[in-house]
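Appendix C: a fully annotated inverse folding record. The material below is reproduced so that readers can follow the format used throughout the book. The structure is listed first as tokens, followed by the designed sequence.
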């Protein structure tokens, strides 16, 4: 995998080729009185949720229909949304009538250069920047010599969101982390699929959504065998995403498969990893098989060859149809466009050459070039069957794309990590706790002297030096507050471990774990090594293992 950094501003031609200029839209409606713009599908979804929650007079039939509308609203077209709005007499939040739904492009347009005559857009995603660099990655030697390989990028994306709301959920500027995994479209297996086969996840398939069922727990391997997931590459990234969510401490997530109406026409399979928040399940990661659509679009628009090559072990031969240009006849009328048109015609595949032969049999055709449209007369091109040696094949790779919304993941994680501990004393005080995992917590350890006394300074300084030596961030609370108050403070900050220095004189300190509030005595010289093992990224030590070691 190669990490690259791409530009925030992209020329219009790139997004015209990818289809973003015409199709990267949300559908909105307008309040006919105030002029307020509202995203149509979200308005319909909110109406359905309110009716299901509050309208006790709904018949079972009506409830079923509204549930169906709720499921399908995200994939509805303008006409379908208009029908729903009219049928249920949906009005604006300010109780006014709504306009007819219309598309709104989500990209921020920018004028490039001092004259402002060149149009660009702020990138709405990172994918196009990586895909445009496919050939450069292949030729640079940074990527493997053959597929599959991937490009990755972390950066800011910009979308002209119709109605920003819900904290970090719907914003106009946000951080994305995306991978574009290039694979042979005829072989989407993954060499490491075995490492995630037994990973469990909540599967919310198309059938579950349409039939009003909740998702069910299954494994990656079972989902593949049952053909719920289209191919191993998509399945592998789903498994790794679930493992990532487990590692950072996400407790409630599910994988929702896109309905057929939601998917782009070129997509093979799409899944969203949705995390539970106070706003319901929110899409935080998208994993999509984009097929070869993007590379084909950019290759066609730029005239550049964006194909990969597979060399065969044995050389064979076969008869192929080839188109050849009669340069004596064609070059003069084609003028400056001759080189481009000749390359287009003679570079065609056998299928394309056969199709051109049929079209030319009916008369002249036109081809596009940098000089405009060029007319090709039938006598300019001849078609011959030639015997060619076959040493390999050229093909356009498919792209598997996992896209992570960093802000949404962080927001959902903070919500799921927050809880309140009740004091066991008679006061029954409520104490907030952030259960951030040791891996994610900004500060791993709090050093808490039982009292501010000079005789504890040696132990405190020794611990701080050792912890810093292991690369562990720590916090010292040497205030005069009681130890219970100090514990409450660091629990609210999400610090997973506390080391309490006391006057026992046995060469040990008390190590406390935040969530269970259990404590053990550990020798001072072993504290840093123990905490480092609890916080490491790969195969961290569990608190139960530490308790078992030091409880005796």
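Designed amino acids, in order:
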């Amino acid at each position: 995998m190669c990490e690259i950094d791409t530009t925030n501003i992209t020329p219009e031609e790139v997004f015209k080729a990818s289809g973003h200029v015409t199709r990267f839209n949300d559908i909105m409606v307008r309040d006919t009185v105030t002029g307020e713009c509202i995203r149509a599908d979200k308005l319909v979804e909110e109406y359905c949720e309110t009716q299901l929650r509050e309208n006790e007079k709904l018949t079972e039939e009506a409830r079923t229909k509204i549930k169906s509308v709720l499921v399908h609203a995200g994939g509805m077209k303008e006409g379908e949304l208009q029908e729903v709005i009219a049928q249920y007499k949906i009005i604006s939040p300010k109780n006014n009538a709504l306009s007819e739904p219309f598309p709104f492009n989500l990209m921020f347009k920018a004028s490039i250069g001092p004259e402002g005559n060149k149009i660009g857009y702020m990138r709405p995603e990172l994918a196009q920047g990586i895909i445009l660099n496919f050939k450069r990655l292949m030729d640079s030697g940074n990527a493997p010599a053959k597929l599959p390989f991937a490009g990755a990028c972390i950066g800011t994306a910009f979308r002209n969101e119709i109605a920003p709301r819900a904290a970090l959920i719907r914003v106009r500027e946000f951080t994305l982390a995306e991978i574009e995994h290039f694979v042979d479209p005829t072989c989407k297996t993954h060499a490491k699929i075995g490492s995630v086969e037994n990973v469990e996840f909540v599967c919310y398939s198309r059938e579950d959504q349409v039939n009003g069922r909740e998702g069910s727990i299954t494994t990656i391997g079972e989902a593949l065998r049952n053909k719920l997931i289209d191919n191993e590459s998509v399945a592998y990234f789903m498994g790794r995403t679930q493992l990532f969510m487990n590692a950072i401490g996400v407790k409630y997530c599910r994988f929702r498969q896109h309905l057929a109406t939601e998917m782009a026409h070129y997509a093979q399979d799409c899944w969203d990893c949705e995390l539970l928040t106070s706003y319901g399940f929110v899409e935080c990661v998208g994993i999509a098989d984009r097929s070869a659509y993007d590379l084909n679009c950019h290759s066609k628009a730029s005239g550049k060859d964006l194909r990969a090559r597979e060399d065969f072990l044995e050389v064979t031969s076969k008869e192929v149809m080839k188109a050849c240009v009669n340069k004596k006849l064609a070059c003069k009328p084609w003028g400056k466009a001759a080189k481009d048109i000749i390359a287009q015609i003679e570079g065609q595949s056998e299928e394309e050459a056969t199709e051109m032969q049929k079209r030319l049999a009916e008369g002249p055709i036109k081809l596009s070039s940098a000089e405009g449209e060029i007319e090709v007369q039938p006598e300019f091109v001849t078609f011959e069957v030639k015997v060619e040696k076959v040493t390999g094949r050229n093909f356009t790779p498919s792209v598997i794309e996992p896209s992570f919304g960093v802000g949404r993941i962080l927001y959902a994680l903070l919500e799921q990590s927050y809880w309140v501990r009740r004091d066991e004393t008679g006061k029954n005080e409520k104490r907030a706790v952030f259960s951030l995992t040791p891996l994610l917590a900004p500060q791993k350890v709090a050093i808490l002297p039982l009292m501010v006394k000079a005789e504890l300074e040696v132990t405190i300084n020794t611990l701080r030096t050792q912890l810093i030596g292991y690369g562990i961030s720590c916090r010292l609370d040497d205030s005069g507050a009681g130890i219970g108050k100090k514990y409450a403070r660091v629990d609210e900050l999400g610090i997973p471990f506390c080391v309490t220095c006391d006057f026992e004189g046995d060469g040990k300190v008390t190590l406390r774990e935040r969530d269970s509030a259990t404590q053990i005595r550990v020798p001072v010289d072993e504290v840093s090594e123990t905490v480092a093992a609890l916080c490491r990224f790969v195969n961290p030590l569990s608190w139960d293992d530490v308790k078992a070691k030091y409880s005796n």
